[in-house]
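Re-run with default settings, no changes from the original entry. Doing this only to confirm the output is reproducible before filing.
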Amino acid sequence: MNKMKLAIFTLSILVLVSCKSDRDNQVNNIATDSISVENLDPSNDDIEHDNSLPKYKTIKEMFEASYDFSEEVGTLKFISLEESKLHVQVSKPIFEGDLKNIIEEQVKRDIVYVAFQTFAQTDINALTITSVPNSNDNPKKYFDNYKKTVSVNRERALLILKKYLDTDNFSILYENQNGLWVPSKLFSVLKFEKLNEVFTDLISNENITL
């Protein structure tokens, strides 16, 4: 009788051990599956994402994507879309009481912005940019006394980029904020801090000293 009890006890232990082993295997299998799913997660750092600045085939596509200027409201005009004679006109509204120097800086800033935007986001090598302010009350009214027209090319813009930002990469002028590409702080250096110097270098025929 004692032998039978011992046998039953031993068998019970073996069954419990076997069940525990099966449960452990199931847990391990679940854990392994979780790791596999995690490795397939598209947000995994090991997966490379396309994080490069968008490039456009034409300047029209670039303007359409940026919404900075608009043909519909009169702040954008394509004077010529011929590759060898590419010429655009941009406008920003001015307000009654705006100081003359503020308006003049805005005109310069728009030229600098469009020039470097074009070289950063397209493969265009040269273009002419006209900047003329318009009226906030009547967008079709332009103030030609402030108008400036500048022809720019990629080679000179690159020298300016090297001079003021110590780089030959136009894409640093933009940064990705939650999937939206916006002008970076480095672009602000060209548009604000060094505006007059950059504009002078842009229109000058003199060599740029690095």
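The longest strand covers residues 126-131. Helices lie at 2-39, 59-66, 100-121, 154-165, 185-193, 195-203.
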